[in-house]
């Protein structure tokens, strides 16, 4: 214990409970200065944008209020992290800097450089884990290699003893306050210039308290049928915690503790949900060991895949105007809410990279800008899975049939009719392939194909054959 001031550098750990670095700062003694530094340039091409920045703004707003209730103050700075930390140390007299670790390549490199620079200057530095159950450097195959396939990864870690959430003793915390220091949240200009993000307010309550409420609501009932309902986009069968986990308004230790306390993980629903939490862990494991994968395929043979770049085709997909109802419903849900059901994410991704032969990176970029849960590890793993070029990826020749997928997972067409209202009067029989409906049925439904709703952007059979031909070129090279 000492009276030295500790700077608590917050990044994607925007909560008070189960915050390892915060509790370490409390235990160290002395006043604590919590700070968020807007240093988007450090992430280069993968700095947060769009919907993710909107969520971040609201998360910081909520965290600021939480610190205030606990007698503290959240400070905001903007600029190079090391330079800002040094200036803050000089102005506050801090002797320590604590933070929670990040695992993306640019952050790891930056954090290592900052740690060395501060220690060389005589500052005590401590980094902690608060965002993963098992850090990537603690998991490897029997031969010491990183995992590229999920199932053996899951077998390795599923029986490991889980660390409980960290109990943060806020009652003994001594927070540093100085109203004249730093800038205001609004000065960070996180909210996008485009007004579309205002729609997100209706769909998300962004706070640490809300994250726990959503978890408890999910565990009270939906988790029991998660193994089946998670595939039904019109059913509230998922937890929707992904943006809260990404920005750290809740941590996986909290999720797993509650899950174990309320359910038997031998039951199918709870076990399937636990495996999804570990799938997120696997995504970070892959990104940590293969930091180039946001920009290049893990499987090198796909580096020269014969993509057919077409901005018009990409735009039709982005706007939900492909003529495939389940795809268009998903893309419109995304643009309206900042989120898309995971089953539908797989369907829309498959159509883009296989039927339409558009680069998976273009799809990843669109998701990165429009998802409130835009997470570099999960986004990269998901898109490389769809493209057949990453870890645990579906074979490239596995090509989703959007009509079959729609009929199986949205059998009554409720999801499609909600997000594609121009099809709401189409009979269920034809809802996933309206081009098969007789002209009289379309006329009665008030839907003229090519006018009210587009014809398919590409014939399914033709798209499949073209994708397989492209795959054959890769095999032959």
TrEMBL record:
Family (UniProt): Belongs to the DNA photolyase family.
Alphabetized GO MF terms: deoxyribodipyrimidine photo-lyase activity; DNA binding; FAD binding
UniProt domain Photolyase/cryptochrome alpha/beta: residue ranges: 4-133
Cofactor dependence: FAD; (6R)-5,10-methylene-5,6,7,8-tetrahydrofolate
Single Gene Ontology BP annotation: photoreactive repair
Entry superkingdom: Bacteria
Major enzyme class: lyase
Protein's organism: Coraliomargarita sinensis
Keyword RNA-binding found: no
Site description Electron transfer via tryptophanyl radical, residues in chain: 307, 360, 383
Co-factor: note: Binds 1 FAD per subunit.
Catalysed reaction, written as an equation: cyclobutadipyrimidine (in DNA) = 2 pyrimidine residues (in DNA)
Chain sites annotated for binding FAD: 226, 238-242, 273, 373-375
Keyword terms: Chromophore, FAD, Flavoprotein, Lyase
Protein's name according to its UniProt entry: Deoxyribodipyrimidine photo-lyase
EC number: 4.1.99.3
